[in-house]
Amino acid sequence: MPAERRAPSVRLDPTDPIDLDESSFDRAAAPTVDAADLSPADQQTAPKAAFRWPRSFSALQVRNYRIYVCSQLVANTGLWMQRIAQDWLISDLTGSAAAVGITVACQFLPVLLFGMFGGLIADRFGKRRVLMITQSVAAGLAILLGTLAVTGAVQAWHVFTIAALLGFVTVVDNPTRQAFVSELVGHAHIRNAISLNSSVFQLGGLIGPAISGVLINAVGQGPSFMINGGACLLVVTLLGIMAIPESHRTGAATADASIKDQVAEGLRYIRRTPEVMWAIVLVAALALFGLNMPVILTAFATTEFNAGVGGYSMFNTLVAIGSLTGALLSARRSASPRLRFLVSCLVGLGIGLALASVFGIELLFCATLIGIGIVTMLFMTSANSLVQMTAPAAVRGRVMSVYLLMLLGCQAIGGPIVGSAIDHFGVRPTMLTCGVIVALVAVSAGLAMAHQSQLRLTVVRSRVPLHIVHR
């Protein structure tokens, strides 16, 4: 007989024991919703919405979130334009795939070193004001790089330095952005809002590379940086018109505690919450070996298919098409995110990377890129939803900072490694190795979760002959 299921609970006290039974492996725990999890904007705006949005767009019932989504569409289009221009600029300046990886490392290394402090800022200060500051700084850096590129004075060290400075902006901006969304829409719409955010990001990934590719061919990389600077300033303007009070969710104890104690509190919560811990472990594996597409696609465009900047832009657009599809599919899902689903997505990604590495026909390679985008985005939206839906508001910023530290910081490690491997062994063997590693890590993590949960397979006489039961 299958054992009785027990719903795991969320605890902040590190001395409380936590049972990791099969429900932890199958689905994320859904914390009880109370008034503290709903923002004032959600309580005032959502009940008054005259138009009922479809389930796939339910978070758009909140007016402030609609403004936020518009700002993110503009910002992400500009961001993708800058990414394409930055990768191609450093490739032109150095002719090295390793240099592209170093650029990725410069941008994400600050997250790896200082990510937890960004989450602390997100938990202690008004999130809208913080985002306005970070976007203003990002605008200034983009305009500076654009000016250097337009005047012809740009050098490789300029790109590395500005990428590192943008990394410090990301340390604060990303966890604040994640926590800000949950405050805008409330607990009921978190999953849908995360999926819509991913959809908007990937829609920008469709528009941005196409525009940037045309501009680079016509006038060079500089205008793409300038446009991104203007997009960041527009985001600041839209954030300023939101009709919400400037507040934060931290209590007196958090504000009075030392920085060390506050950081430790977030880490203790992750360690004592298996759903969050395993999700972050899987995200780290993805970031190390599965999110190096800028380095890999640059090499494919220049050495394998001789497609030039137009081909590189097209490859990124195809990944974005798949990612947008995955985000929209995720928005339609109403079930709680499951760790088992995350493992399955990572296995699928590993298989996709391995297949793309052996396809010598460009058409088949391009088709595989769409599939890679789909499974990657299904994984990322589900992992993000699991973490945010499980973590209480009091520590959500710090928990998300660790999540983003793994997601972005591990790319700082993986980017140079993959770039160097491409220079020494070629892009196809490197991509194949990344795919195999991702799949093996996912399978190993799944087996470890099952062992930790004391799950085993047994055969019983019933209509459903195979059961997973608690030992």
Structure characterization notes:
The chain is mainly alpha-helical and 471 residues long. The protein contains 17 helices and two strands. It has helices at 22-26, 40-45, 63-94, 97-124, 127-151, 156-185, 190-219, 222-240, 252-256, 259-271, 274-289, 293-304, 308-332, 339-358, 362-390, 396-425, 427-452; strands at 455-459, 466-470. It has a two-stranded antiparallel sheet. Strand 1 and strand 2 (466-470) form a beta hairpin. Helix 4 runs antiparallel to helix 16 and helix 10 packs across helix 16. It starts with 21 loop residues before the first helix and ends with a strand.
Which terms summarize this structure?
2 strands, globular, disordered C terminus, mainly alpha, disordered N terminus, 17 helices, 471 residues, 75% helix
Give the helix level as a range of percent: over 70%
Number of strand segments: 2
Question: Could you list the spans in which at least 5 consecutive residues all have pLDDT below 50?
Answer: 1-49, 246-254, 464-471
H/E topology pattern: HHHHHHHHHHHHHHHHHEE
Q: In terms of structural class, how would the helical and strand content be classed?
A: mainly alpha
> How big is the Rg?
22 Å
Mean pLDDT: 77
The dominant shape is: globular
- By oligomeric state, this entry counts as single chain
User: What is the helix tally?
Assistant: 17
Strand order across the largest sheet: 1-2
Let me know the largest β-sheet: 2 strands, antiparallel
Distance between the ends:
11 Å
Estimate what percentage of residues fall within beta strands: under 5%
